[in-house]
Structures are given as structure tokens and as C-alpha cells.
Amino acid sequence: MEFYDVIFGRESIRDYDPNRPVELEKLKRILEAGQIAPSAANKQPWKFLLISSNEMLEKVRECYLKEWFKNAPHILVVVGDVNEAWRRKEDGKASIETDLTIAMDHMILAAENEGVGTCWIAAFNENNLRDALELKDNEVVFAITPLGYPNEGFQKQGEKNRKSFDIVVKIL
After folding, report:
1. d(Cα 1, Cα 65) in Å, to the nearest integer?
2. What is the per-residue pLDDT across 82-106, written as a single tens digit (0 to 9) for each?
3. Class of domain 3-150 as given by CATH
4. How many whole angstroms separate alpha carbon 99 and alpha carbon 46?
5. Residues in a beta bridge with 150
6. What does the domain layout of the chain look like in residue ranges?
7. In the chain, which end has fewer C-beta atoms inside a 10 angstrom radius, N or C?
8. Whether the model pTM is above 0.85
9. Could you write out the three-class secondary structure of 110-172?
10. What is the CA 29 to chain-centroid distance, rounded?
């Protein structure tokens, strides 16, 4: 797929076919897109958890109780280790959120390129997710996404409702 087609074509999918898992080769390409993402000082303070087993899907689905979320055959969780993240000398601010966001965005765009639906979710129940994944105190999650094929007959909206270019871009 042409790069700008990927960017302009990507949209959140909230209607998954639970009986059609994504092929392993595609999942690997999506995960590799995150693995090669840039991070501050190349620290790569992340792990990518691909939830596919019924047992783990059941646990992780408790962190976000929307009905459509339960149908996705896979859930991707990007976990960051705050102890491994680069920190700015002046104030100690960690780059972890930026690093995880870049990796997640790479994987979401790769999924679009593969014809796999995603939906960036930040409104999950963090405590439920931490318990389900047995995360350590130094591990954080900023976003998760389901991965799966849209149900047959699903139609993308196509037209994006965005502020105009002139409002959001200033050339100085």
C-alpha cells in the first residue's frame, strides 16, 4: 500500500470478526514495525504483549468493557519500563510516554497496511490490566489496541472530520 494511503485510510475499527484471527506472518510484521521504532537515546524501553489465547483474552478484556472489544481475536499491549527510559538531565522527565506512543503508532499504521483493524484505547482500567498481566511497579501501559479483521459488511467512514490545515499549521 502507498504510504499516504495508509495514513489517510487508517481509522478506528469497532466491529471485529471474532472467528477470523490474524495470520501469524502479518502479526509478526506488525510487531516488527514497533520493534524498529525510534526511541529516545535508542533505549527501547518496551515490551509488546500480543494477547491471543482465550484465557488471557478473557482476563485482559476485563480492563475495557465495551461489547465490540470482546470480539477482537487479539489485543496488543505496549508495556514500558520507566527504569529503562531516557531521562532529561534538567528535570529528570522520562521519555517513556513518547517512546511507547511512537512504537504503538508504528504498529497501528503497519496493521492498516496489512488490512488489520485497530482502535487506540487509553480509557482502560489500569488496575485490571496490571493485575491480568502481572506487571511490575516500574512497568506502565499508555495504550492498548485490539487487532483483528472487521466483520463482513463493515464500511469505513472514509471522510475524516478534522480542523482545517490553516488552523492547525502555522509556518513561521
Report:
1. 33
2. 999 999 999 999 999 999 999 999 9
3. alpha beta
4. 8
5. 16
6. 3-150
7. C
8. yes
9. HHHHHCCEECCECCCCHHHHHHHHCCCCCEEEEEEEEEECECCCCCCCCCCCCCCHHHHCCCC
10. 14
